[in-house]
Fold this protein.
Amino acid sequence: MDRNESLRRIRESPDGWDLVVIGGGATGIGIALDAAARGYEVALLEQSDFGKGTSSRSTKLIHGGVRYLQQGNIPLVMEALKERGILRNNAPHLVSDLPFIVPNYKWWEAPFYGIGMRVYDVLAGRYGFGKSRNLSKDETVARLPTIETDGLMGGVVYHDGQFDDARLLMHLAMTAAEQGAALLNYARVTGLSKTGDGMVDGVTARDEESGETLEVRAKTVVNATGPGRRQADHPTLSGRARRAGPLVPSGGGGHHGAAHR
């Protein structure tokens, strides 16, 4: 992955690109990799380091979604567990098993969480990371020495995954480059270019290392700049586009749990 080569290709592409991706995080680089692997001509522009934002500041968890199991969303849990297993198979140097312990303070929590985590194991099938099991009070304290012991009745241990998000991102970027994508960091997109009838046909960017202005033409432009993006960051967008709501709303929700090594 050579920045100078990517810059040269972007400068010397008079016919433009099939796809220009704005944003060099996991979403943007994943889009670039997928499109390049399908034979499209792809350029990606990132204003800073690849993965500087959310993609290197995640929970570091690669999991199936226990909370979605509680909500009854079985298809989503099965898909996530399968993808978790595939990711470990593809990148075992980046993904590892991480056991979690759910402490039990009420009599019903041991059977409730115990059965729930065993269902989680069954849904994972051959992609499982380890078998869940119930723990006694002593076992729970031994694994979590600082846990509140007043009223503690035991716990349930189950297994999910942990991964190195920044290293995974760089592996995706290198693979995208191998597939023919031109990935350029420190290239801030400053505006969108349009045809006479108002259709977006590319972007204008600034090479932050040299100050050079780049005109990059494309059949399709994807904004993958992350959940923190603002419409005002793109002054060339029409007033109608600014008033429109998000086409793909961002997900929400928090993650809580006690991990044990």
About this structure: The chain is about 35% helix and 25% strand.
